[in-house]
Structure prediction request, 154 residues.
Amino acid sequence: MKRLFRLLALIVSSILVVEANAQNVKESEVPISVKSKFVTLYPNAKNVRWEKENGNFEAEFKAAQTGTSVLFNSSGTHLQTEVEIPVSTLPNGVKDYVRKNLSGKKISEATRITAANGIVTYQAEIGGEDYLFDAIGNFVKKEKETDDKEDDDR
Prediction:
């Protein structure tokens, strides 16, 4: 019985950790200030999916057939925009890093991240992990994926 209880507690805590990082939320749960700012930036966005992530709100949608996500804090301040890009358009520094440090691995997805202050970084998904690079392709850090969701269903 103790073994079953421990297993159940482990499963529940694992679910809570994943949900603490990103939770789908209904549009009605998104603050008016956030929705208002979003509509100002993307008045024609359709099929928007909202998530709450570390206290911030993320709108995911397709703009001109391209996966896009926009992050806002709870008061509606725009924090960053992520846009899927073709892998071939990543800076050469990213491709060089992969060739030198991750021999035999391929980049499966690429994203350009633009912070509200205009600073651009790139994210490359390689083997289920996200590698972050600066605007010219210098390696910044590696992060493990926190969930198994597919972004292609936007």
Observations:
- The domain at 24-153 is CATH 3.10.450.360 (Nuclear Transport Factor 2; Chain: A,).
- The two ends are 43 Å apart (CA to CA).
- Residues 2-21 form the longest helix (20 residues).
- The chain has one domain: 24-153.
